[in-house]
Amino acid sequence: MLSFFIVAFCLAICIILLCSEIFRQRLISFITNYLIVLIIFLLVIAIIIYPDESVNAAYIGLMTWFSIVLPALLPFFIGSELLIGLGVVKFIGILLEPIMRPLFNVPGEGSFAFAMSITSGYPVGAKIVTKLRSDNVLTPYEAQRLVSFCSTSGPLFIMGAVGVGMFQSSEIGIFLAICHYLGAITVGLLFSFYKKSKKARPKMGIQKNYLLSALRQLAKSRRESPSFGILLGRAVKESINTMLMVGGFIILFSVIINIFDVIGLIDFFTGVLLFILKPFNLNHSLIKGLITSIFEITIGCKMVAEASSSLLVSKIAVAAFAIAWSGFSIHAQAISIISTSDIRVGLYIFSKLLHGALSSMFVFVLYPIFSSLFQLSKPVFFNSVDYILHQRILDNLKLSVELFIGIVLFMLFISLFASFIQFIIGFFKRKGRRF
């Protein structure tokens, strides 16, 4: 409690010193110029007051990044950069254009971003959408629609860490994954109406024979792209830079969450929200988990799973919101990537909030159907945090590579199957005209 008053006292001094500036400038200008400086100043003071806690939190964040995030995401980053550079994504995009355009009002290349996102998790989807936009594959409006539903959590985190590791039930993990991806698809369908009046860029050289057009585009991309050695070097460089950025944000927010907890800020917001949501009869531990998940997804989900709430559906709904919202830690990673393009950050944040609300709604709608299947058992991972920190790096790397190869082969199969269906439909249409 004393520490909270120390930080509050420093905050009061800063407010007094800047009071005159508030009256001389507009409020928005004041917030833009000074709020970030004020937050950083208070954070530095808190780190100085609590050096041991800050160092321990930074170590946990570093080990989380090194042992789980780096081997899990690096193959996806390098592989996706190579596939885009080699023209494979355009090949798949032309074949899946008849599916993606009517549903989500985006080009067929968007299927690659969505598949990579639901396979690998945050922030791979945002990275691929930004890359497609920078290569002018997407218009600004198409990129905005695509990133709204291509920023999702991976199934390993939802079903493994949250379902089995935290809720101690594989069935709950599967249920959470279903609600999460249904929420993402629904967001994509809703955002398909965003700027729908704006005409999409016409696809050049696409004929009725989608497979022939795709093969021609692949050959053209190979002629225009640099050598494989140059592409590989660029892919590794870009991927390593992105992974270092992701690691920095993980360590930073690990320290921030720990500081917030130590000074009692999370308890303060929990008390405020508990008073506001008093009619809903939610307990203190569940709301504290919700508040924590607003900042960091893993710690928040763990607190929600361990909450003393007697209603299992409430805990699952809050966890579904936390996973879909993803927390400011993930937002910072995604925003730092999409900010290099003309994708609007505000709309992206709104889409994540909408994703969280829809995922929670699907939990309440589908819970009566799945509730009889839920069985709580002993956790396979014993402790989710220990699991995340101590799982072998080589196992994560191997699994990540296998997933990436599997999803690419699956997408190629789906693309060729879609092209075959288009050929059959065209064949019967032509045959019908003859008669």
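The record above closes out task 2.4. Task 2.5 opens with a second protein, given below.
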Amino acid sequence: MSTHEQWKSKMGFILAAAGSAIGLGAIWKLPYVAGTSGGGAFFLLFLLFTVLLGYPLLVGEFIIGRRAQSNAVTTYKKLAPNSLWHLTGRVGIFASFLVLSFYSVIGGWIILYLVQAFTGNLQGLSQEQYGQLFGDMIANPALALVGQLSFLLITVLVVAKGVQKGIEKASKIMMPTLFVLFIFLVIRSLRLEGAIEGVRFLLVPKFSELNSDIMLFALGQAFFALSLGVSVMVTYSSYLPKTQNLPKAAGSIVVMNLFIALLAGLAIFPGVFSYGLEVDAGPTLIFAVLPAVFSQMPFGMAFFVAFLLLFLFAALTSAFSMIESLVAVFTKDEHNKRKRFTWMIGTLVFLVGIPSCLSYGVLAEFEIFGMVFFDFVDLTVSNVMMPLGALATSLFVTFKVSKPDLFDELQQGSRVGKLFFQSWFYALRFLTPTAIIIVFLDALGVVGWIGAMFS
């Protein structure tokens, strides 16, 4: 028998969806991209893009997901039959698959570092030694693959149990724990001598440093951090009852995401500046720089272990959503197939993720457009596929689904008026696509070329 699952509670959905949004994007990626992209200017753009572009799109994905009550591919088929719009769902699912293939690699690094911390191997090293340890660890093919496999194993075991017993139950434990641990770490970080310089770096924008690349990174980060453009939120919202207030739920998720992003910056940059470390360390910022910061604090390793644990929680809740969107497509609500397909998909993700896993070791010399395979997949998904998926979704929602149907779905569970609806609708129809197109054209140099023609 085919029955579509539902979340057990409204809070369970919000925590699970927030967990999908608040993952490596907020904790691993945002701080290092901010560190290499001007700090405050990048963070301000990220905030604006999240609120002005991300929120309307999140509401849009919620609407079509709940309206169709199906997986991401079937959703587009139901709402736009006999058309090619289902390709939006298929491309989104493929993007989720690619994200998880390199995402699981980072999850494996976290697990390996936790093992190193518990065995005492992270005690009393210099920043250079931490960097060397991390480099040696991810360059070791056996270690890196075991870490990736362990992360995927945890993910598969939870998702195989289903929406209520697996994802929702785990998220209800992990997300509140993450918030508590993060606030504790931020308080400790802000008490360091010279911490104010790190706060200034994160919150005071230097507009002279803005360029098209930073704008594109901020746009990609806004969509990456909210899991938009890859059909994840379409899948999650398909499990919602009609009593769920969609605008309120989306607002809660956006606020939590921005709050965690802010906490991540405030936990990391004050310590980096306090101890005179490199703020533009890139993807290794968490693993090579943070241990050096924590090691110089009283009970530093205990704090670092706590940070790694919340880092792992965040990574897992995001991984749950990505693999769930894949499982939903293949099971088509036939629950007896869930375990089998979850294990099959998890295995395939592991195999496809092997080149990313070995990118800093035996495949370090293999480059695509000057990037190792891991960085190439990350850039392709985050800065190309996600924004383009967001563009397609915004056009689908506002041009293909009728306004009466959108208004009807939005009103179920909420009491939004026509003013909110019209503001949301036109923001999604015009503001989101225009911003995405302009940023892309600027990154390609087209905007500057057009400007030069008329100057």
